[in-house]
Structures are given as C-alpha cells and as structure tokens.
Amino acid sequence: MDKNLFSKTLFQKFVKIEGSGGILLLLATLLALLWANSSLGDSYSDLWNYKIGFKTEGFELYKPLILWINDGFMTIFFFLIGLEIKREVLIGELNSLKKMAFPLFGALGGMVVPVAFFLILNQNPETLKGWGIPMATDIAFSLAILNALGKKVPLSLKIFLTAFAIVDDLGAVVVIAFFYSGTINLTMLIIALILLVFIYILSYKQYYSKFILISFGLVIWVLFLKSGIHPTLAGVLLAFSVPIRQKINTPEFIENLVAITSTIKMSAISKKPILSKEQIQEIDDLQDWTSRYQSPLQHMEHSLHGWVAYLIIPIFALANAGVNLTSEVALDTQLVVNIILGLVLGKSIGITAIILFVKKIKLINIPKDITLRHIIGTSFLAGIGFTMAIFVSNLAFESDPFYNLSAKMGILIGSVIAAIIGYLILRIKPNSAG
C-alpha cells in the first residue's frame, strides 16, 4: 500500500472518531441543559456536588464529583493531547517549519486576537481573569461539522483544522500552567518533577513499562494537585515520556511473523478446541513480537481515542454544560457578550487576517485545494470553544458561580453561532470561477 494513502487512511479514521465523538458531545450537552432546566434540576446540582474520596489525619482526597471529573478524568484527555502534540511534532503535520507554519500562524491569530477582544471589551476587574476563555477551540465539535459537510471540504482542510487545534491546545496548556494554577507548593512540585525526570530517563534508555507509567503517573497527579499546579498538566508531561519509536523494524517483524506462521502450520492440530503447547508458545512469541513492533505512543493514542471521545468528553459535558436558562437566574450580560464576540469575531478575524498576511509576505504555502472560503469558514468553526473553554472557565471562576455561569452561557451561545456561520460558509457552492 502507498505510504501516503496509508497515512491518509489513518487520519480519516481519526477524523471519524473525533466527528462521531462530537455528535455524542452535542447529545450530552443537550441532556445536561434539559436536566438542569427541568423539574429535576436540583438533582443535577446535587449529583455533581456530591463529595467522594477519603480522608486520613495527614492526607485528604475528598472532592465533589464534578472536580473528580474536571481534575481526574480530564487528565486522561490532556494525556491524549500530549501524545498528539508529541506525534505531530516528531513525525506529523508539525514536524518541520514548512509544515508547521500554516496551522501555527492560524493558531496564533486564533489565540491572540480573541484575548485582545476580551481585554479591550472587558470593563469589570472581577471578570478580567476570564481572558483565556475565548482562545480555545473544540476539535471534536469542529471536526464533526466538517465531517457533516462530506466532500464539500477537502481532506487537507481537516488536516489543517486538526493541526491548528493541536497547536491551540498546546497554547491552552501553557496558559493554564502559568496563569490558572494556584499558590505553588515548591516541595510537592519538585518531587513531582524528579519523578517525571526519572520516567524520561527510562524512556531515553529505551525502557518503557505501562505499569511504571501508570503507577508513577498517579503519584505525580496527586503531587501536582497538592502543589497548586493544575493536575491535568501532569497528563501532558507524562505523555511526553511515552516513546514513539518501535523496538524492531518492519522487515524484522515480517521475518519473524513468517517463521511463526510456518511453525504453527507444521505443528500438529488438535481435534479438541485447544492449542498444542507448541502453538501456545508460538502465539506467545507473536504477542511479544507484536508488542515490540508497535510504537508505544501510537498504540496508546489509538487505545485512548475511543475512551476520550465516547466517554470522558461526553461525561465532562454532562457535568459542566448544565447552565440554568430560566429567567430567574441572574447573569453578567457584559461577560456573556464579551465571550461571544471573542469566540465568533475574535477567532474568525484573527485566523483569517494573520493567514492572509503571512501568505502575502510569503511565509506560508497554503494547499491548492484550500480556498479563501475554506479558510474563513474554518476560522468560524474554530470559534467553537466548548470543551477547553468551559475547562478554562471553571479554573478562572472556580470560586464564583455567578461569573462561571455567565461565562458558560457565553461559551454555549458563541459556539452555536460560530458553528452555524462556519457551516453555512463552507456549505456554499463555489461558482465556476472559484
């Protein structure tokens, strides 16, 4: 099979998972809204605020269910983001300056301009810390819309959006690390970093063990949590320790595969529905060779995509998207409007303007099948900030439900408007000249 065709097939499978996950994310969001605004609204709040965990005299991990989801479940989401960033930087769409330029400049415009919109429009010092909310892009929702457009959009546009969203996620990770972490306990943080360095050294020495990664990962997660650094960042840093290289190459694997197959063929076949000792030995060898042939990073990324897209993100949405829409609930209208404008106008203007500018001064090359209409439409889709935007909102307004509720309302409305505009622009049939 042609290598480029194989790569495209893998990417199309990835897009399919993310797109389907986006649909499930939408259903979870609608369910959360219906539940929170129904006669059972109190049960929605009571469920997510129910505390679970354990306490001892010198140690406590006792948190509301919603924080276990936001701090715990979402660490797995961030771990996957870390795997994607490492893969893209080493062998993917970000592995050279030429490849990186197009999505990198787009992401920069898509982060800087929405933040500028928010800072210029914001008049309330108490809501200033929400500046990071409109800079986020939700890849699941945006890819779900691109998938719904089918052949109306080229595959290269989906690749651009994916690479753009990964750079955007990296930017969000940096912002969370430096601006949305609490008071830092240096002792806890130093211990966590020492453990991380130990795992990195093992990886460098070509030793990789899931057991060590998970065991150390849990300890590092707790240390980050107790240090004041947001624990989801532990997920990203742990992901960087997962090796991308295979222990054996393809010719060696095929050679051993042929040898194992030949041995199984020549061995006596039992009439009973069990394997002979020789066959069991060969199957064990096959599993060993297969594990050595697989890239640990690729294998883990492939294994986690379904869990994240179909379970973790929908549960996050279910727990966080339940905004009470009744007229009795007060909202900070200015904050709502600022976030809407940041997501809809900030994203679209920022991405489109910077891409056109750097193209004019010849810093980037845009694929021939991507037109100006595609760029403008995708820039609006990038304004769907849902998952990461809500996550940042929870961090920014953790101690102020009034502003958090207002921010979530702005995120929901802004994301819907951006999605509709982006979809309609990309759906327009180009004329014969275009």
UniProtKB/TrEMBL annotation:
It is a multi-pass membrane protein. Keywords: Antiport, Cell membrane, Ion transport, Membrane, Sodium, Sodium transport, Transmembrane, Transmembrane helix, Transport. InterPro entries: Na/H_antiporter_dom_sf (IPR023171), NhaA (IPR004670). GO terms for molecular function: sodium:proton antiporter activity. The chain crosses the membrane at residues 65-83, 104-121, 133-150, 186-204, 211-233, 304-323, 335-358, 370-397, 409-426. It is found in: Cell inner membrane; Cell membrane. One of its GO terms (cellular component) is plasma membrane. GO terms for biological process: regulation of pH. It catalyses: Na(+)(in) + 2 H(+)(out) = Na(+)(out) + 2 H(+)(in). Coiled coil: none annotated. HAMAP family: NhaA (MF_01844). Na(+)/H(+) antiporter that extrudes sodium in exchange for external protons. Belongs to the NhaA Na(+)/H(+) (TC 2.A.33) antiporter family. This is Na(+)/H(+) antiporter NhaA. The gene is nhaA.
